[in-house]
Amino acid sequence: MTLTYHPLGDTGIQLVFGQTISEETNQHIRLFAARLKAEQIEGIMEWVPAYTTLSIFYRPEKIRYQALKERLEQLYDRIQGGVADAASLVYEIPTYYGGETGTDLAFVAEHNGLSEEEVIRIHSGQDYLIYMMGFVPGFPYLGGMPEAIATPRRENPRAKIEAGSVGIAASQTGIYSLESPGGWQIIGKAPVKLYDPESQKPILLSSGHYLRFVSVSKSEYDAIAEAVRAGEYKINSKEK
Amino acid sequence: MSRPLFQVIKPGLLTTFQDLGRTGYQEYGVVVAGAMDDYSLQIANLLVGNQRNEAALEVTMMGPTLKVIEDTVISICGGNLSPRVNGKPVPMWKSIAVKEGQLIEFGQPLEGIRSYISVAGGFDLPVVMGSKSTFLKAKLGGLNGRALEKEDMLYGSEQVHTIAGRSLHYDAIPEYKKEITVRVILGPHQNAFTKEALDTFLSSAYKITPQSDRMGYRLNGPELKHKTSADIISEAIPLGGIQVPANGQPIILMADRQTTGGYTRIATVIAADMPKLAQATPGAVVRFEEISVDEAQELYLRKEKIVSVLEKIVL
What we know:
The structure holds two protein chains of two kinds. Chain A contains five helices and 14 strands. Chain A has helices spanning 23-39, 65-79, 105-111, 116-123, 218-229, and strands at residues 4-7, 12-16, 44-49, 53-58, 89-97, 128-133, 140-143, 158-161, 165-169, 172-175, 180-182, 185-189, 210-215, 237-239. In chain A, strands 5, 6, 7, 9, 10, 12, 13 and 14 form an eight-stranded mixed beta sheet that branches. In chain A, strands 1-2-4-3 form a four-stranded antiparallel beta sheet, with helices on one face. The radius of gyration of chain A is 20 Å and the shape is elongated. Chain A starts with a strand and ends with a strand. By secondary structure, chain B is an alpha+beta fold. Chain B has four helices and 20 strands. Chain B has a seven-stranded mixed β-barrel with strand order 12-19-16-17-14-13-20. In chain B, strands 7-6-9-4-1-11 form a six-stranded antiparallel beta sheet, with no helix packed on it. Chain B has a five-stranded antiparallel beta sheet with strand order 2-3-10-5-8. In chain B, a hairpin with a 7-residue loop joins β16 and β17. In chain B, α1 (38-47) runs parallel beside α4. The relative contact order of chain B is 0.18.
């Protein structure tokens, strides 16, 4: 596969790793980003991995476009055929399905001819790859939801969906990291904070890793929510 | 030591604290925000002896009224919104002394729409994810994540000794016009557009509509047609990116843009021309001119040199 390079104005460069969304492309981007971090090229300010691209923002007073492009090409040549240095993690997101904070669970079940328990079993029986972060702070774009529970967006979007709400939109699933309006079918709620600007680590998740929803009871949910409030909760994660 | 500097008598239309933006967190979806006109912000800071990336007040169209609580030195740069101190017009692009009890006010917008008020020593604000910039949508940064309100007290950081009367060379003071040409680098999705669309884009006048804000400028003009689709697989979007949704009307992405987007982008406005756009009012006419990355970076360096030379003199 050949990488292509495109200027993003005069302070950015975009690397295109492929034309379709795939786990392989995503891992490739993750590997490149990890090497880029280790390389510490002067003038690079930050980068943003996405489904098929890695966008790098830089300061032309430190490094010009051509010089940067050449450095990136060399870096890419060196990692050809490499594998990701660090193992991917699977973050466990405790989720209380249904109830008052997951009111669309019944609709998702009915739409797919399943019981609510089957929807929960399918939704929580899967590791979802975090392809990218974006849209709003801390929001993960997840891939890998089984079609068996795919459900169209609500006809009337809700004016307010609480942060932590777990939803389905067509064949996508996700968690709201910030309270916002939205049309997703809300099937549950996670007590963890994906985005907390006050915290040392303001963003909980990062792209290239995986996420798994773990079904918890209302009382477990309440206990975790309490620990989160007290600043004592630490998310479980394990190597993939 | 934090000390009260200004009391807000009138907040103005939209007055927020902004620095050079929240960089380093875009990969987590955190919006950059920051000053719309980064040139004016940097000059305003340097004239009062601050680091160029310190936070200042970004004033929009109708400025605030601030009562001075303690003698200090300020500078007002950017759009000319008729600044006055105690009823008397004051010069812009210059450091000026203000005294306890005086009122800093604004009048008619004469040229441009955004002014920056810097204060010697900087404002005392929490640094959230590396920046003091306000991002209103996520209620993040600045003064409790919001715009100024009546009766707010604004605090200064450390006391510094700065000389009033320092000014920017007139050659380096920009003009803000009602009709502007901004230079762009084509792409990255220029191949998604028809040949006619590219010609139209580079030869037509587009009007900035009233639906324009810190997030994006929606333009109105000849339709830009896609070959097949207006959508792309979501990717990072740069400052100045010009996205074109299916209706063919371009939107220029500004300081508060989302970090990622799924619309084709025909071009990106070069960094050196972003302040021109930042100062353009709704109703202003924009034309686009293609240049190469190399030329754009030469222009970038020329501008950077003005700022860095001033920096060396001042700091």
